[in-house]
Amino acid sequence: MATPIKDVILKENAPVTILFDKHIEFLRDYGKDDNNFEFGMTDYLRVSGMYWGLTALELLDQTHSSPQEEIVTYIKNCQDPETGGISACLGHDPHLLHTLSGVQILAMYDRLDAIDVEAVVKYVKSLQQPDGSFTGDKWGEVDTRFSFCAVATLSLLKRLDAVDVDNAVKFVESCMNFDGGFGSRPLSESHAGLIYCCLGFLSITHRLDLVKRDVLAWWLCERQLPSGGLNGRPEKLPDVCYSWWVLSSLTILGRLHWISGEKLKKFILACQDTETGGFADRPGDVPDPYHTVFGLAALSLLGQAEIKNVNPTYCMPQHVIDSMQLSPQILRD
Ligand code: GRG
């Protein structure tokens, strides 16, 4: 007997339109109460969390409603004077992921002048290994996520020249699998999140010539389940965040039209919380800013009118990427 497909069933009364005002309220209020238990337990991801929330607000055309000066000062204070890297919150060690998130926020605000840019460049450079890979911080974990974070940060600072790009490309290429996908390290399982990181990396470095374009696009299409939602690898449940990791990858490959956008949209909209606003991983679950930004960004790639255009490589508003005169590579037919 064939194994049943793991999936969810959408309810008849699931929302079918964007709950625009509810999402704005959800994002504005999130984290306002710093005595809240959830807030206290998430300090290890604070700067990235700020990037998710602010990008979501920006896609809803609501940036003006964020406390810009307070956020700029917070990021400035998270820059470690010794290494130049940015930490998740005050008093924590710096990390490449939060360095990227901090730089993304400042780029959105056009306030990169607030930090010591050359110190950030020095930090990113210090994390490159002899095989071209990057560690996330001084503790040495290597992952293709950090290759993406490194080149995305440096390109936003216009300092991609600071690292050995050819060697970095060789490492990412060595993480490509027979199915066209990419894992976290050589011989690791293909995963949609890491595929986004590697395609984003190759888009920024203009080396998409290395990918098995249609083999990979087909693997990504196979992530769509009968509910319309996408999973990150075979035999897994759908999750709104993969709407972004898969769709941005298909967009970079010029193959967005290979999946059913209509069915995916229905799934994403069904993940909205009708009471509080925000998106959850799956219908009926608790919403959070992470799933909210990736739900909105995926809807933007699907051409949803009320949402601003998002750039598939940087997951930042397209107008910011345009005004910075960045031109990541995108394959088109
Ligand atoms: C600027 C948008 C942006 C991103 C920064 C950190 C990063 C770069 C991207 C993260 C990509 C990602 C989601 C990687 C997934 C890593 C992974 C192996 C997750 C597996 O988690 P499970 O097993 O999930 O909980 P599944 O869905 O596979 O069960």
TrEMBL record:
| Reaction catalysis annotation | geranylgeranyl diphosphate + L-cysteinyl-[protein] = S-geranylgeranyl-L-cysteinyl-[protein] + diphosphate
Q: Which Enzyme Commission number(s) are listed?
A: 2.5.1.60
Annotated signal sequence is: none
InterPro entries for this protein:
PGGT1B-like (IPR045089), Prenyltrans (IPR001330), Ptb1 (IPR026873), Terpenoid_cyclase/PrenylTrfase (IPR008930)
**UniProt keyword annotations, A-Z:** Metal-binding, Phosphoprotein, Prenyltransferase, Repeat, Transferase, Zinc
Enumerate the GO terms in the molecular function aspect.
Answer: metal ion binding; Rab geranylgeranyltransferase activity
A Pfam entry, by short name: Prenyltrans
For activity, the cofactor(s) needed are: Zn(2+)
Q: How many cofactors are bound and how?
A: Binds 1 zinc ion per subunit.
Instruction: Quote the cellular component terms of the Gene Ontology held in the record.
Output: Rab-protein geranylgeranyltransferase complex
Q: Which Gene3D superfamilies match?
A: 1.50.10.20
The task this protein performs is described as: Catalyzes the transfer of a geranylgeranyl moiety from geranylgeranyl diphosphate to both cysteines of proteins with the C-terminal sequence -XXCC, -XCXC and -CCXX. Catalyzes the transfer of a geranylgeranyl moiety from geranylgeranyl diphosphate to both cysteines of Rab proteins with the C-terminal sequence -XXCC, -XCXC and -CCXX, such as RAB1A, RAB3A, RAB5A and RAB7A.
| Subunit structure, interactors included | Heterotrimer composed of RABGGTA, RABGGTB and CHM; within this trimer, RABGGTA and RABGGTB form the catalytic component B, while CHM (component A) mediates peptide substrate binding. The Rab GGTase dimer (RGGT) interacts with CHM (component A) prior to Rab protein binding; the association is stabilized by geranylgeranyl pyrophosphate (GGpp). The CHM:RGGT:Rab complex is destabilized by GGpp. Interaction of RABGGTB with prenylated PTP4A2 precludes its association with RABGGTA and inhibits enzyme activity. Interacts with CHODL.
- Record's family? Belongs to the protein prenyltransferase subunit beta family.
Q: What protein name is recorded for this chain?
A: Geranylgeranyl transferase type-2 subunit beta
Q: Which organism is it from?
A: Tribolium castaneum (Red flour beetle)
Recite the lineage of the species.
Answer: Eukaryota, Metazoa, Ecdysozoa, Arthropoda, Hexapoda
